[in-house]
């Protein structure tokens, strides 16, 4: 065993890693240069009159570096340690140049219009090279490659359309996050490939990950890719500039500001995990209940991020944008994908009806979030929490997935999901969770009942691997009891929405 560990974490692997880190640190110091003087010409002491062109040069260099990576994997003559080391060095330089070009341009006043277009083009090329190599020589999925290519084509066409209209077509912050996720996931997949010899310590570490973890990473990549294209469309503008004036930007320390954002990120990761367990290639028992649990966990994270931000006075434009994009991703896109996959599983193949129902559901979630944003921006007192017009998307996602835990008839499921979709975009008055804690019915009955069902789900989900086949049937009954504990609050919540809208004087 000691010998295996020594082989895995060899001295050569650490040495090559140290060389790469030394190159990156040295280049960073040389390129960024010394502290810029407040007076005098805006010229770098090394690059001189080429200072203005250096950000574009760093973008151009990423093109041959990306091409070299795919060449090393493709040509057998390059399958030797030196070329393998050059792959890791090339990827490290790509990441360094991607980070440096913008920082350099801002520090030395070298921002150009060409650079604004060249930077995303270089990112697209690198992602193309990495994705193609990961598909041919790794575990990357063809459908993920289609998503990546389709996103880039759509964003390119939308950029051209925006430029013709004289609108801003620069890269969105969601696109920058997407690029980071794509680079990380694709690089890990390439590290796991057995085509090249191991030359760096990260390769044996990457091979320790189970194959299902890689599938989860591919789903994460796919979701970040899809969500990043929405801000290029006017109807999805709330994803990029969601209620920026709702609260004053917090001046507290960054780690305080990040606390509510961690819950928002947790919401997003729970949505990705729910889709992962809905995938037919993942072997899991009680699949509808497991998917429902992770969407419930996402809803719990969503319920805490806003109150935490208000309590800690840590509001930020980034957090608000992240929250809106996460809601669309988890309670819109992820839930719609689960609906389609569940319909396909019930039918025994790809279901066109499931695709239509999933698109209807996603459309109404989008319309609801867009309307919610407009109402919140028009609210004269933004510190006072308004009730919801239409069923909130977290409750709608949970209600839709609850249906799959009770019956598997295609017709009944279609009607139930469409009805939930219509409730989300209805004019019904639903109480917000911030106001619900002050209402006796919710505070002393519905909220405790929902929490009891969720806590039982937590226990059963994590107990599931240790339950013997003798108790498998009983465990499914326990899962159904949890679903009933959740159905009752959701049903009463819907009834109360009708009462608040049409029978305000009636008591409930």
SSE diagram, text form:
Blueprint: H1 2-8, H2 11-32, H3 54-74, H4 81-107, H5 113-137, H6 142-164, H7 173-191, H8 202-207, H9 211-229, H10 238-241, H11 254-278, H12 287-312, H13 317-347, H14 352-377, E1 388-389, H15 393-403, H16 410-424, E2 429-430, H17 433-436, H18 440-463, H19 472-502
Antiparallel strand pairs: 1-2
Summarize the structure.
The protein is mostly helical and 508 residues long. The chain has helices spanning 2-8, 11-32, 54-74, 81-107, 113-137, 142-164, 173-191, 202-207, 211-229, 238-241, 254-278, 287-312, 317-347, 352-377, 393-403, 410-424, 433-436, 440-463, 472-502; strands at 388-389, 429-430.
Q: Could you explain the architecture of this structure?
A:
With 508 residues, the protein is mostly helical. Helix 11 packs parallel to helix 13 and helix 18 packs antiparallel against helix 19 (472-502). It starts with a helix and ends in a 6-residue tail after the last helix. The protein contains 19 helices and two strands. The protein has a two-stranded antiparallel ribbon with strand order 1-2. It folds into two domains: 2-230, Four Helix Bundle (Hemerythrin (Met), subunit A); 234-502, Four Helix Bundle (Hemerythrin (Met), subunit A) (Up-down Bundle). The protein is globular, with a radius of gyration of 26 Å. The longest helix has 31 residues, at 317-347.
Order of helix and strand elements from N to C terminus: HHHHHHHHHHHHHHEHHEHHH
Structural domains: how many: 2
CATH C-level of the largest domain: Mainly Alpha
Question: Considering DSSP H and I runs of 4 or more, what fraction of the residues is helical?
Answer: over 70%
Largest sheet: 2 strands, antiparallel
Integer average pLDDT: 85
Shape call: globular
Q: Mind telling me which CATH architecture of the largest domain this is?
A: Up-down Bundle
User: Any idea what the CATH superfamily of the largest domain is called?
Assistant: CDP-alcohol phosphotransferase transmembrane (TM) domain
Through-space gap between termini? 66 Å
Rg calc: 26 Å
